[in-house]
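Not sure how to ask, but would you mind making up any protein sequence you like and the tokens describing how it folds?
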Amino acid sequence: MASQAVMGAARPAPGAASAEVSVGRASVLTLSTVGFTLAFAVWLMFGVLAIPIRKELHLSEVQFGWLTAIAVLNGSLWRLPFGILADRWGGRAVMSGLLLATAVPAWLVSRASSFGELMAYGFLVGLAGNSFTVGIAWNSAWYPRARQGLALGVFGAGNVGASVTKFIGPALIAAVPAAGFAGGAVPGGWRFVPFLYAALLVLMAAATWALTPAHDKMPGRGRPLGEMLAPLALLRVWRFSLYYVVVFGAYVALSVWLPRYYVDVYALPLKQAALLTALFIFPASLLRPVGGWLSDRLGARRLMYAIFTAMLVALLALSIPDLVGVRAFTALVFVVGVAMGVGKAAVYKYIPEYFPSDVGAVGGVVGMLGALGGFFLPLSFAYLKAATGLATSAFMIVAVVTAASFAWLHLAVVRLRRHGRGAAEAIDLRP
């Protein structure tokens, strides 16, 4: 009897265990979201820094373009392996290590003195962009299916980091003297921004390691790599990837394209163009939690139908030259931003539903292809504009990609209804 009492006392009460899991989930979601926001700001910092760098180093237009794109490219290429690593080693270790590793090239950027050095260090800084798939896999492992949509939406709102450097960068560059402080140990001018980010990345890595559960969840631990990659042979994975090109790749591309569009088409000053672009960026980032919540309740399929419909209507209007004035244009772009913000969460709601044990691999390839869309779409915008002379070329291309995704979604649903559906397929069709 005494031994039974001791054994009973040694076991944690069910309520205590549940509370411990809840606290663990909350810490994972909070720290991963803050870390991802910082990493996203670092990933896209050259969108602002390249302007004073161009003046200092006398860069050509081609060099300027590559400097702004190189980090985006590297932040896309490794999303699949980082997602797999998070499933196998746990998000705590991989996220902490990624943040710490990115701090090194961020500091080196602050010391660079040539275009070659900036390209090399900028490429390495792009590792920060891979934090997205790490956080997706990490939060998916900790949250139950019924709450994954909201959790992943909250995490994905870290996309707002795209605006952080745009808001604080110019002020910091102007506030810190070019000579810096402490005899140059703290650099000044544009170099202060990557120096500050390097310090913040180190602090964030330490906080992530110290304040999240040491006993992490690792759904891919011990599984053969071939088994984890097997879902990538399914056509459904590539369909989800095309959806993500629409709602994320096009978001990144338009974030870069819109300021110039406002300046060229509506003759607005750059400062006003940047503020109007923020009316697109903020809903496209901050509405991900709303998209996750709606996905949990309505199902991803229903939500994607509404998203693609809204986007197509707005994009077709935006594609017609000289159709709308600046106010109507901004309103239509805002609609596109809202749809993208909700849609990014809806796409990632699909993944843990269909592939609960392979979120790292599937989420990695979906994120990789979506982010690569953000690299290639601006190039296609420029080539079509050069060929046609139409400033609205960007919206034409995004409209075509959206229509293709919508058609593929509908054909998949029709096929499922025609040939029957199993438990997994029912997820696509549920109310």
Notes: Residues 1-11, 423-431 have pLDDT under 50 and may be disordered. The CA atoms of residues 86 and 94 lie 6 Å apart. Residues 19-219 form a domain with the Growth Hormone; Chain: A; fold (CATH 1.20.1250.20).
